[in-house]
Specification:
Layout: E1 2-6, H1 10-15, E2 29-33, E3 36-40, H2 42-70, H3 77-87, H4 96-109, H5 117-136, H6 142-152, H7 162-183
Antiparallel strand pairs: 1-3, 2-3
Helix pairs in contact: 2-3, 4-5, 4-6, 5-6
Length: 184
């Protein structure tokens, strides 16, 4: 079940949207795509966000590949993936619940409970964005600041390892080929 809210001023709409039921327990997940806010039930959020991230990754990869092929340099997939990871400025495709849990830990200890380098860097970047949002808007609570960051902030890069990006690209291409073959 989706609830769509059209707006060209996402932050104003988000600020006036009640995302929690009293305390800090979110009742819906918030996903932002261009100028449409999509509120989803929690069960489907992880799969849906992964799909959105994959689609954004593929779009940036195609753009990088096209630029490489139009230039004088040879197309090398490893280099194209590396440039895609660095160049991409995706939204944070994370569930509100997971983000809230990690931010509670971050705000109390100043650290995130992860050892994986890519994930750790991403969570530290999100933590800094949440702190910045709360400093710029003192009336916001931490849950509201998290919702704003998830809806409007862009990551500085794709936080995927190069090996995972290879697997992801292979899976996307393979799924699309299978879908095309099943149509015929």
């Amino acid at each position: 079940m989706h609830y769509r809210l059209q707006s060209t001023r996402r932050t104003d709409t988000l600020a006036n949207t009640n995302l929690c039921n009293g305390g800090n327990q979110p009742i819906v997940n918030l996903i932002s795509t261009k100028n449409t806010l999509i509120f989803e039930k929690m069960e489907n959020a992880k799969t849906h966000m992964r799909h959105l991230r994959d689609r954004e990754f593929l779009a940036v990869y195609r753009q990088v590949a096209q630029e490489m092929m139009q230039g004088k340099e040879p197309f090398v997939r490893r280099e194209a993936i590396r440039r895609t990871l660095e160049r991409g400025k995706p939204l944070y495709y994370l569930s509100y619940n997971r983000t809230y849990t990690v931010m509670l830990r971050y705000m109390s200890t100043g650290d995130v409970p992860l050892k994986a380098r890519q994930q750790r860097a991403m969570w530290l970047e999100i933590g800094a964005a949440v702190k910045r949002e709360m400093a710029e808007h003192p009336e916001l609570t931490m849950p509201q600041a998290i919702a704003r960051v998830l809806a409007t902030a862009h990551a500085s890069r794709f936080y995927l390892s190069e090996a995972y990006a290879y697997k992801l690209l292979y899976r996307i291409v393979h799924e699309r080929r299978q879908a095309a073959a099943n149509k015929h």
